[in-house]
Each structure stands twice: as C-alpha cells, then as structure tokens.
Amino acid sequence: MTNGFCLLNFSFKILEFELIRKIYDWVLHWAETPYGTVALVVLAFTESSFFLVPPDVLLIALAVGQPKKSFKFAFYCSVASVLGGIFGYYLGMTFWHFLKDYFFTYVPGFTQELFSYVQGLYEEWNFWVVFTAAFTPIPYKVF
C-alpha cells in the first residue's frame, strides 16, 4: 500500500511538472509573436493579482530578443504589475467576507487563530515584510 501511494504521489509530481512546463512553454511562445508586449502586460497584471506564472520569463525572452526595447518592456511590466496588485487588493478587500468561511472550513491548516496571528505579525512588521518580499524570490502574492 505504501509503495502504491508513493508511486501515485510521484505520478502527481510528474503531472505537476508537465503542467508547469506546458504553461512555461506557452508563456515563452508569446515572445515569438507580434503580441509579445501585450502578452507581457496581461501576464504581469494577472500574476500580481491571481495567476501563478511570473512575467519574468517572458520579459527576459523579449528583452534578449529586442535589447533596444528592454527598458520599455520592463516599464510596461512594472506598471502592469502595480495595477494588477491594486486590482488584487481590491479583490481581497471586496470578496474576503464572502470567502473567509470557505477557507476556514475547507483549507487544511487554515484556521482563524493562525490567520489572526499572522495578521497581527503583519500589522507589526508590515514595512519590513514588504521590503523583504521585494528582494526575495518568494511570490509577492504571499505577502
């Protein structure tokens, strides 16, 4: 039974990797199209609020492919990311009171006590948490 579970778990890990690889390849293919800049803006906006794939992959591909436009791409990516962050904040502010019961009931390990504890830590150390998040590879959505 244990071997079967390990094999099943390993199969899920392979499927997760294959899915991530397909998403990665899909993001990279936009660098080879005339819509690369638009895709970068959409990806940066959605990633900063809810999507999981960072725009860095596409930004690097576009900047390497067109070095003279690299600062323009970085500017568009930054602006879209900030706007997406504002949108993500709006989503959380608007829909949290509808969804919090779902999270406390169905997400393992997500309790009201833990949430309140982390919220208190964040309120105490908010500047340093955000400052640290800006310089680490930890997804910004976590903060």
Helices and strands in order:
Blueprint: H1 2-29, H2 36-47, H3 56-65, H4 70-106, H5 112-134
Helix pairs in contact: 2-4, 3-4
Strand element count: 0
Taking all Cα atoms into account, the compactness measure Rg is 19 Å
Encode the helix/strand succession as letters: HHHHH
Helix content: over 70%
- Could you tell me how far the N terminus lies from the C terminus, measured between alpha carbons in angstroms? 39 Å
Overall 3D shape? elongated
Quote the average pLDDT.
Answer: 81
- Percentage of residues in strands: under 5%
Number of helices: 5
Structural class assignment: mainly alpha
Largest sheet geometry: none
* Poorly predicted parts: 1-12
Polypeptide structure, described:
By secondary structure, this protein is mainly alpha-helical. It has helices spanning 2-29, 36-47, 56-65, 70-106, 112-134. Helix 2 packs parallel to helix 4 (70-106) and helix 3 (56-65) runs antiparallel to helix 4 (70-106). Mean pLDDT is 81; it is low at 1-12.
